[in-house]
Design goal:
- With about 160 residues, this protein is mainly alpha-helical.
- Helices cover about 90% and strands about 5% of the residues.
- The protein is built from one helix and two strands, in the order ββα.
- Strands 1-2 form a two-stranded antiparallel ribbon.
- The protein starts with 8 loop residues before the first strand and ends with a helix.
- The mean pLDDT is about 90.
Length: about 160
Amino acid sequence: MSGEKKFGASLFGFNKSDVNAYIEKILYEFDLRLKEKDDEISNLKLQIREMKTRYESAAQNNEYFAKEKERIASALITAQEKADAIMEEAKERAAEEKIRLEQALERERERIIDIKRDIKIMKEQVSGMLAKYQGELDEAENYITGRESEYTENDSQGA
């Protein structure tokens, strides 16, 4: 074995000072290794604390973002519902307005038809009155022309 320590021999066994020096050396090396391990454990504990802090911070951020996501999703759903309601109301109003305008258009068409009929009747009445007055004017003109010819005949007979 290469790591074996050979002690010098003495009268009653091994040399005490060699054994004590070896034991002190082993204790010193053990203390060094123990101190290194304690330092390593301290560093690992510090890293664990840092990781826990990071984890807790990340967990809080995750919780915050989850709540924000839920709040935003809720707001979007509410907004979508309101938009749908507004669209539905607008469609209903548009349909009602279309019906109202179609009814008004139909009334105006009927009014136009009535006005055209009244105009046709008035034209017929005016034409009839014009024909009547034209006839009366023609009669009056014939009468006047007939009277004038009587006067001219009487004048030519009397002279």
